[in-house]
Amino acid sequence: MKKVIIIMGSDSDLPVMQGAISQLRSFGVPFSVRIASAHRTPALAAEIASSAEADGAGVIIAAAGKAAHLAGVLAAHTILPVVAVPVKSSTMDGLDSLLSTVQMPRGIPVACMAIDGSDNAALFAIQMLALSDAGLAEKLHAYKAGLAAKVEQKDREISAEYAQ
Predict the structure, then answer these.
(1) CA 74 to CA 70: how far, in whole Å?
(2) One digit per residue, pLDDT tens: the chain, 164 residues?
(3) What is the DSSP string of 19-61?
(4) Taking each helix axis from N to C terminus, what angle separates 118-130 and 14-27, rounded to the nearest 10 degrees?
(5) 82: part of which helix (H) or strand (E)?
């Protein structure tokens, strides 16, 4: 199975990325976690991205706040899909991170999740890996069925409580 590489611009992004780490663990997807800054360690970021495919990765998840250029820098150095998690910062409640991430130039696509949306970033990465992994696809079907079952249970409970 291909792995996912999680790259954060700073260790301060780790609390946000715990959701992605938990999702990947729950699906049994191998992953690694790295810190590389688009601005402070651009050579390291480029090296991680350019060697990711050879290292057995299938998807990269990049988390960054403020200027949030990490996902674009990584995408410039790999053909692997890059999924960005703009991190909420003290500036503009993370809107700056979102806009910096989503506005990629033509030819350098980056999938962008919601601000602090690391759970969905992991699920999106898992969905991409599941395209070529039947066992992982089966786990995703079960996960989605579980989500539906929870909503249906809540519907039954609230319908019963408010029945007239």
Answers:
(1) 6
(2) 999 999 999 999 999 999 999 999 999 999 999 999 999 999 999 999 999 999 999 999 999 998 889 999 999 999 999 999 999 988 788 999 999 899 999 999 999 999 999 999 999 999 999 999 999 999 999 999 999 999 999 999 999 999 88
(3) HHHHHHHHHT--EEEEE--TTTSHHHHHHHHHHHTTTTEEEEE
(4) 30
(5) strand 82-87
Partners of 59 in the beta sheet? 4
- C-beta separation of 88 from 119 below 8 A: no
pTM over 0.85: yes
Short-list 89, 43, 26, CA closest to 63: 89
